[in-house]
Specification:
Oligomer: single chain
Shape: elongated
Number of strands: 2
Radius of gyration: 21 Å
Helix content: 55-70%
Largest sheet: 2 strands, parallel
Order of helices and strands: EHEHHHHHHHH
Strand content: under 5%
């Protein structure tokens, strides 16, 4: 999403409504104070950066930015993207070319779309989706680390563990122990809640 700022001499309420209805992020009447414009633009850009960070943190999970934080078309796009990824997450051959075709984008346009929404590349976003799903599966304590590696489409357990540590700062085993109410008893059958907030991704 590219922020749209309307600088106009039109001051009627109906003009403002039309401007916002057509997608403007800011409607400012002339004459305007340059400092106010500068501050407003910085606020819009900061909001977009927060949105990108949240999108990456929650990639592939049920938690997505609220309706007032993301344009409806962008939310719809991410919903479709995550649905397809989750349906095929165990497929190690799943790649950005396949994702782009499934959503009706050329490789270039798909890259631009993902980069604009998240600040990361499509490859990085797919990787984060797999890792976020792996973290959720770990907390169920129903599968081994090797099984989760296969279920989320990673080639080998060692490759999975290395990427997991890059994303979360700890190994899969330590992540599970850190989220167990009684670390001394990691075999407990009581499932802890899935983590709501993931650490920021290192892929920038």
């Amino acid at each position: 999403h590219i922020p749209v700022v309307l600088l106009t001499a039109k001051s009627r309420d109906e003009d403002k409504i039309k401007g916002y209805d057509t997608g403007a992020d800011l409607y400012m009447e002339k004459p305007f104070n340059p400092e106010v414009l500068h501050s407003a633009v910085n606020s819009i850009l900061a909001k977009l950066e927060r949105q990108k960070h949240q999108v990456v943190q929650t990639a592939g999970t049920a938690e997505t930015p609220s309706a007032d934080e993301m344009a409806p078309l962008d939310r719809k796009f991410l919903t479709r993207l995550y649905a397809y990824i989750n349906e095929n997450i165990g497929n190690s051959e799943l790649n950005v070319n396949l994702l782009g075709r499934e959503l009706g984008f050329s490789r270039t346009n798909f890259y631009r779309k993902i980069k604009a929404l998240t600040g990361v590349t499509p490859n990085d976003l797919l990787r984060v989706c797999r890792l976020n799903r792996a973290a959720q599966l770990l907390l169920t304590r129903e599968y081994t680390i090797g099984e989760i590696s296969d279920m989320t489409g990673f080639g080998t357990q060692s490759h999975f563990s290395n990427l997991f540590k890059r994303q979360f700062g700890v190994t899969p085993r330590d992540y599970l122990l850190n989220h167990t109410s009684n670390p001394a008893d990691s075999t407990s059958t009581e499932n802890p809640p899935v983590a709501d907030n993931f650490p920021p991704t290192p892929f920038t």
